[in-house]
Amino acid sequence: MTKRKIAISSAVLLVLATIFAASCHRSVPAPVIVDGTIECDEISVSSKVPGRIEKLFVDEGVTVKSGDPLVTLESKEIDAKVAQSSAMYESSQSRVTQAGTTLKLQQLTFVDQLNQAKAQYDARHEDIRQAEEGLNQARASYKTQSDTYNRFKGLFADGVIPKQMEQDHEYAYLAAKAQLGAAESKLEQAQDGLKAAEAALQLAKDATLQVNLRQQEQASAVQQSTAAQGQLQEAMALQSETQILAPVSGYVSQKISNVGEMVSPGFPMLTIVRANDFKVKVYVDESKFGNLMLGRPIKIIIPALSNLEVWGTLMRVSQAADFATKRATNEQGTYDVRGLQLVIHLNDDVRYRNGMTARVELTEGEK
After folding, report:
1. Domain ends where: 240, 272, 289?
2. Cα separation, 3 vs 209, whole angstroms
3. How many domains does the chain divide into?
4. Rounded CA gap, 296 and 49, in Å?
5. Of the N and C termini of the chain, which has fewer Cβ atoms inside 10 Å?
6. Comparing C-alpha atoms, which of 72, 60, 17 is closest to residue 263?
7. Each residue's pLDDT tens digit, 185-230
């Protein structure tokens, strides 16, 4: 092989090597750093009731746990309502007790009256039975004595019997007649007594209306007591709202109100940032990073923590482009673009703070 051919072959190999190196260099684009922000849920702490701030237990930057006391409100109106509702409830309870006692006494009285009336009614029935028996005996005796008297009457004048015998039969007849009248009178009295006993029994039975009335009074008292209890519970619930507790664990990011200030319902007094569930939000060019897959790991650099490098997980990509113009900072030679929002979940770290800069490392065209 001539020197000329060798030189041409070497030149060709050099060109091929250069082309190969260039193609390899183009297949691995340089990473792109896009600046985003660490964010976490921020909770506004407010009250359900109006009042004046009496105590403020925390300041900005203080770490709190869920349930820790934050603010105490002074509300004399609510305190007065609790006292009034409590008095009304106690009074209603007294009325319930009184109504129950009255009902029990009425029930006992009713039972006693009914039993006595029944006993009297039964006794009057027995008196009538005995009076009827006595009347029947008196009638039989009267008939016997009347018949005997009529047979012997006038025999003395005829000289048949002695006068004494005639008088004895006459006396016996008169006595039987008197006994008959007494038996009839006794039966009438027994019948009148039965009528009186029937009236008394009916009156005793009518006393059930009084028992029913007392039962209704007791039910009404119970209902009033229940309503009073509900008002008391409502007042106490409002009073409990004057003690503001931390709804979540985290740290106080902002103190908006101070001791002595009046606050209205819903007006924020403090803001608390959750101590977990941190995310990085960043906007990127949809034409370069629109193929990123959910769940993939992404490298994050945090300048505030000495360029700490951590890995996050892509949890959300905006389904539609954000029509607000966003600048993807630190992209050399780029311009304002319409971007996609990437949300990257970070593992918990007590050093994270809401609003910290997070530099997201991405590679153009990656999936």
Report:
1. 240
2. 137
3. 2
4. 47
5. N
6. 72
7. 888 888 888 888 888 888 878 778 888 888 898 899 999 999 999 9
